[in-house]
């Protein structure tokens, strides 16, 4: 978490308004809203809710507001070390939050700096933090440049704090204590989550689908690899999954929707080609896709489904809605979609993997431009959640991402097939 996230979230609580906070901090409203969402995710606690176009604080936020003066006092001492410091009349709440929103360092770095100061050695601190010494040394040098102050005196025997470093250390220690108090609930939740992982996935199409089969294999593999942890799997629409992830009801989700916020970490696993599915006697190899879509009713997922985004974009490339008004029905229950195909001559745009093991009475045709729907794993930005996600990724047949978020090429042989870049995975979308 960065200072700007903390400052923007505290400003919303101070003003009881996202828009007023954005105006006071000279930030876009969307930036402040995203910062508040990141802060809520880190705390695993909802801080605000909206009713009748009015923003209200939850009891947790009201409690946080009572200690806001303590935060302002602490932050004023920290931001005063950046640049020329605070002006004489700049110690009020808004001025401090305005400066804190532009403070260049992250809260992760200040925790690392405290470790260095207390270890008296960058080498020993890097070992404690389990990060490369070169990375830590570079981060400290960058921080010194950004603050315009030397924080450490380095020698062969280790390092000592300069007067500026001593002042910085004593300024940031109280903030770390306050942050730890705020995040204790989330840390306890994810400590418990290491014993009881709640994993949400999009709705499988039926019990014979590839997704259903491979999730069952995941449960069996998890039980074998981690017998003292429960992996609890539930399913729902993409909207439901993200709601439960934000409220910490779920720890990790597998979804087919785009992740547009950096509140969460994500890992794209594979993609499946979208095809036009319908009765085999109707969807023949010589049939015209535009003609079929114009002549038959179409069943699509509701807006709560991540698949809907991909399906609608696909339909827009094939159908001219200005000239054609197709019959479109929203259905979230995928088994009902199949019955609409089999019994009522409906068409559906579905991932190819979702239907290839089904009855021969359902046929399919490729669509123009070969559109695809991607599957991705999503989890909160917390180390313990990342550990659980890496375990799931490995059991799905993928190597965990590196610390920088890169995707390794090597995969473990766990009975799953990692797809080639241009092909579909063994693990189907539904």
TrEMBL record:
Q: Which molecular-function annotation in GO is an example for this chain?
A: DNA binding
InterPro entries, A to Z? LysR_HTH_N, LysR_subst-bd, WH-like_DNA-bd_sf, WH_DNA-bd_sf
Question: Which Gene3D superfamilies does UniProt cross-reference here?
Answer: Periplasmic binding protein-like II (3.40.190.10), Winged helix-like DNA-binding domain superfamily/Winged helix DNA-binding domain (1.10.10.10)
Q: Name one GO cellular component term.
A: protein-DNA complex
- Domain (HTH lysR-type) spans 107-162
Q: Which UniProt keywords apply?
A: DNA-binding, Transcription, Transcription regulation
Say which family it is in. Belongs to the LysR transcriptional regulatory family.
What is the protein's given name?
Answer: HTH-type transcriptional regulator GltC
């Amino acid at each position: 978490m960065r200072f700007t996230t903390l400052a923007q979230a505290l400003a919303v609580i101070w003003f009881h308004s996202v828009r007023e906070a954005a105006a006071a901090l000279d930030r876009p409203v969307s930036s402040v809203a995203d910062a508040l969402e990141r802060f809520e995710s880190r705390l695993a606690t909802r801080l605000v809710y909206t009713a009748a176009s009015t923003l209200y604080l939850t009891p947790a936020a009201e409690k946080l507001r009572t200690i806001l003066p303590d935060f302002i006092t602490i932050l004023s001492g920290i931001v005063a070390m950046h640049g020329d410091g605070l002006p004489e009349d700049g110690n009020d709440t808004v001025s401090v939050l305005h400066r804190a929103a532009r403070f260049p360092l992250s809260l992760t770095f200040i925790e690392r700096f405290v470790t260095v100061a207390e270890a008296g050695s960058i080498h020993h601190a890097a070992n404690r933090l389990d990060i490369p010494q070169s990375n830590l040394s570079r981060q400290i040098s960058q921080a010194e440049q950004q603050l315009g102050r030397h924080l450490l005196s380095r020698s062969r025997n280790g390092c000592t704090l300069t007067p500026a470093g001593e002042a910085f250390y004593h300024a940031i220690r109280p903030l770390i204590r306050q942050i730890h108090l705020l995040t204790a609930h989330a840390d306890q939740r994810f400590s418990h989550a290491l014993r009881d992982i709640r994993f949400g996935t999009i709705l499988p199409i039926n019990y014979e689908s590839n997704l259903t089969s491979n999730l069952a294999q995941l449960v069996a593999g998890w039980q074998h690899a981690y017998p003292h942890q429960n992996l609890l799997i539930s399913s729902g629409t993409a909207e439901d999954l993200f709601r439960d992830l934000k409220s910490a009801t779920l720890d990790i989700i597998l979804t087919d929707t785009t992740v547009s916020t950096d509140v969460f970490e994500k890992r794209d696993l594979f993609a499946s080609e979208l095809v036009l599915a319908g009765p085999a006697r109707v969807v023949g190899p010589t049939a015209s896709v535009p003609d079929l879509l114009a002549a038959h009713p179409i069943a699509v997922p509701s807006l709560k489904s991540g698949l809907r985004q991909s399906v609608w974009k696909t339909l827009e490339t094939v159908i001219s809605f200005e000239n054609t008004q197709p019959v479109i029905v929203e259905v979230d229950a995928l088994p009902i979609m199949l019955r609409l195909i089999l019994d009522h001559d409906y068409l559906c745009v579905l991932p190819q993997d979702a239907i290839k093991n089904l009855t021969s009475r359902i046929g399919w045709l490729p669509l123009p431009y070969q559109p695809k729907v991607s599957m991705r794993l999503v989890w909160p930005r917390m180390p313990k959640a990342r550990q659980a996600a890496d375990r799931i990724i490995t059991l799905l047949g993928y190597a965990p991402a590196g610390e920088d978020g890169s995707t390794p090429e090597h995969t473990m042989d766990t009975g799953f097939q990692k797809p080639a870049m241009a092909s579909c995975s063994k693990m189907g979308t539904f």
